[in-house]
């Protein structure tokens, strides 16, 4: 009996330990639960005057993609230019010659573990590197390049397990701003936004790369990552492309429901956010909508659509919704805006966490701050395009900044101002952030 109790206790302790390790990871877009909530405890929410400790810095090349953290390793992609220059023309593409790369670092020390590279010419607008964050699952890394090269790699060694090219296999032309939709793993399936006739959404066997199903046609696939939700007793795969907001059966790709939601320039980008039986999505072109899900069956209807004076119109970063308030970076005003979810009415607006109050002359559109809520403290960690890590309180009544530290230099450019447009990863009581020259681990342990 004693031995049996010891065995049960040991197994329970082991499982708890595994859960804790898992909670420390940030293996996919918006974190382990795809909700932009950082669940670790023992994290500082006020920086010392000298700023938080920089655990390490490691050199890196061009890229917009976020780091991914899993099992004590950091995975991040970049682009090494061998010929040509980046020209950030919003309305036109530029040609570059170079290599797409993915690197694995030891998360504790920052020491390189392995790197892989592939020759890949670019013909893109804002051609400075891969966009999609690596997705880590079950010992594999899924890497989507800007020109549609999908690769499954062994996470320990970097060796290629299987690969696809979206243009060659699906006739999917590269979008103006490159393939950007972070791949999603659920169970034994990898879901991707691809493009081409009848293949906006494609499901692959995550271990072999074999196609399971493909679905949907659209003028362009858009840039929004696939999102999995559960409602009305079933899982639903959300795909927002250049014309419609769609829910699919993740098992076979059949359509559960579809509502029209057409972003300007095909720029469906943000991850749709779910609160209860409501879904919020918005984009450039003053496009925003609140969708109500049916509680009895997989169906939906639009509750409201935005007017020119309503809501927050997100592009580069996904908004966060809490207590009925949407907080997001607005593409038109470059401000952080709080809007009421129920009707879209704006409550307040500020450029302090996006453009920075010390730089009031910074102009243009697409001002960006990536928003993550820390569960234990209820505070928000924002990473600004100015390279600042910010801790703030966001509420219906306003924006209250608690701490700010300058971590990275903005090494890219947009609308005539310097920017860093890569979202951070939060894991191991740290923030992992990158620009076009380095990746940095910021120690935020208490």
Short précis:
By secondary structure, the chain is mostly beta strands.
Q: What are the salient characteristics of this protein?
A:
Lipocalin, 44% strand, five-stranded antiparallel sheet, 6% helix, mainly beta, 446 residues, Thrombin, subunit H, disordered N terminus, five-stranded mixed sheet
Structure description:
The chain has helices spanning 2-23, 166-170, and strands spanning 37-38, 53-59, 68-70, 73-83, 94-106, 112-119, 122-124, 135-137, 140-144, 149-154, 160-165, 184-186, 189-193, 201-205, 211-215, 227-231, 234-240, 244-248, 255-260, 273-275, 278-283, 287-293, 300-305, 320-322, 325-329, 336-340, 346-350, 369-374, 380-384, 388-395, 398-406, 412-414, 417-419, 425-427, 430-434, 438-443. It is mainly beta. Strand 18 (244-248) and strand 19 (255-260) form a beta hairpin. The relative contact order is 0.13.
Which structural category fits the helices and strands? mainly beta
> In percent, how helical is the residue content?
under 10%
Measure the end-to-end span: 41 Å
- Total number of β-strand segments? 36
Summed up, the helix count is: 2
User: Per CATH, which architecture of one domain?
Assistant: Beta Barrel
Largest sheet: 5 strands, mixed
Strand order of the largest sheet: 1-28-29-30-31
Low-confidence stretches: 1-23
Mean pLDDT over the full residue set: 94
What's the overall geometry? globular
Strand content: 35-45%
Task: Name the CATH class of one domain.
Answer: Mainly Beta
Q: Per CATH, what is the topology of one domain?
A: Lipocalin
- What is the alpha-carbon Rg in Å? 21 Å
